[in-house]
Amino acid sequence: MMGLLADYTLQNVMLGAALIGVISGVLGAFAVLRRQSLLGDALAHAALPGVCIGFMLAGAREMGSIMGGALFTGVVAALLMVALTRNTRLKTDAALAATLSLGFALGVVLLTWIQRRSGASQAGLDSFLFGQAAATTRADLYPMMILVGVALVGVALLWKPLKLMTFDPIFAAVTGLPVQWLERLLTAMIALAVVTGLQMVGVVLMTAMIIAPGAAARQWCGSLLGMVILSALLGALAGIGGGLVSALAPGLSTGPVVVLLATLLALLSLLLAPRRGLIPAWWRRRHRRSHTSTDRILQTLYDLAREHGDWHYRVEQGAVDAYHGMITEPQLSALADRGLVVPAQHMPDEGRHWQLTETGVAHAAEYAQRRRRRFGNGA
Predict the structure, then answer these.
(1) pLDDT band at 16 (very low <50, low <70, confident <90, very high)
(2) pLDDT for res 122
(3) I need a surface site. Which of 50, 97, 203, 244 has the fewest CB within 10 A?
(4) Are 125 and 49 in contact, with CB atoms under 8 Å apart?
(5) What is the pLDDT, as a whole number, of residue 290?
């Protein structure tokens, strides 16, 4: 393993993937919170013509020119999308679809035209579609480091305005913040993240790197700062892990493996996160259901009847379900078998109702008295 980690190519791949994970995680957290998951997809596809334009201007596969061209067309696409949503009747999803289709179609046309030209300088240019991490050199990492540094500094300097705009854009506008300019700037920084990952992940898969770490971190964190930090760490973990897996299993492309690991982290977070995970939520519901005794259901009917001044007050089963957060029909049926409640008819269009029997009233009153004595004794 140590010999593998000393490999020059693997070091470049892991460092580049970690950089992509960090910038994608930081900016993707804002995209997830602002419900702009498709924005990364549109910007990634719109960056393809910029890759081609940068290549044509440089006359060779020079990363600085290519990333500059990709950033330019990505920002232009973002501004076009904003203009379409603000100045036409198109909704955001329609503007995203139009921008994505237009950018990708133009990129494919330019890519085809370049590849038909004579010479070998355009070799490997199509790797920007799906990424080619193994072709990353130390010189390619320097522009990536600059872009990551610019994005992180921008987020740090604009932390409070970005935070306010993310959670309450209307209040941000009322307080005098330039919300529209902040939105454009945040979109441009997301375009920076997309451009950073073109070499390794590619146009097609880059949108997953923008969304997956942020979606995973959202399940674990309740604060924006914690979410941004965890999202960056998860993105870097996916990048480094993808580089290692692709190195240990020759023939696997690094970009797709990185995306698969990031998606796996998101799925595990959706399932296992303590507060928002599906499995803990299921367990809490099961625990609550198992610990909701028939006496508590009976006490609910008793309290409602007492509030209405009628011990035979008809209580709708749906109201009892909503109060306890569960289906209470099994407990109500068990109470009916004990002769404590009986089903009752109320209005034809309403749900099933239940009312206390004389025995049920006495039992509920005794249960309430026991609880008062227990709590009064400090239990």
Answers:
(1) confident
(2) 56
(3) 97
(4) no
(5) 55
